[in-house]
Design brief:
Strand order of the largest sheet: 1-2
Order of helices and strands: HEEHHHHHHH
Low-confidence stretches: 11-33
Helix content: over 70%
Mean pLDDT: 82
Radius of gyration: 25 Å
Distance between the termini: 84 Å
Strand content: under 5%
């Protein structure tokens, strides 16, 4: 105990060995408080950086999908759809892209986008492009056949994302599955507009 008291007075840190053989720096005295507070600041910065990347990763696909709906100049009457169907398609598509973007961010945070780009990044990009193309084709140009093709691409991309994301992070794979269901439901809505 006397040695510990002397170390506390001098602000010296000592290294202890845990039972599993790994070394753990145990801070003693005034020097230890500074180390702990610096670690907390690093964790705080990393958390802020992570939340910023999450916000950007979700906001960009959501904004692109919403912009595709509003830029398509979709007139429900011209597309053969009721206003309620268009409203459901807008809200569902934006929500599905938010969930898919969250799943993609979870995979990216674990490094899966770099390790397996063909199984994660390519299907996500294909699914996003198909989702952005659906509104201008199905509603703007009133071409339900092209809309069905976009829905088929969205289903294929979402299934590939669910499989690819699930290999990296099972929760992300499960988050992509409702997007498959949404793409099928959007195909049904699109078919009813024919």
């Amino acid at each position: 105990m006397a040695a510990t008291g002397a170390a506390q007075q001098d602000g010296i840190t000592r290294r202890g060995v845990r039972g599993d053989g790994a070394e753990d720096a145990a801070a003693v005295g005034a020097g230890g408080a500074g180390v702990a507070s610096r670690d907390r600041r690093k964790v705080g910065r990393a958390t802020k950086r992570g939340l910023r990347s999450l916000a950007a990763a979700v906001a960009l696909p959501v904004a692109l999908t919403a912009a595709s709906f509003y830029a398509s100049g979709s007139d429900p009457a011209a597309a053969g759809a009721s206003a309620s169907k268009v409203m459901i398609a807008r809200a569902g598509s934006v929500a599905a892209q938010a969930v898919m973007a969250l799943a993609a961010w979870m995979v990216w945070a674990e490094g899966g986008m770099h390790r397996r780009p063909g199984a994660t990044l390519a299907p996500f990009a294909a699914q996003l492009v198909a989702a952005m193309a659906w509104a201008p084709l199905a509603l703007g140009l009133a071409s339900p056949v092209a809309g069905l093709a976009c829905c088929a691409a969205m289903v294929a991309g979402a299934v590939a994302c669910a499989r690819g994301f699930g290999a990296v992070n099972p929760v992300a794979g499960d988050l992509a599955k409702p997007c498959v269901a949404w793409a099928v439901l959007l195909a049904v809505i699109n078919y009813k507009m024919m």
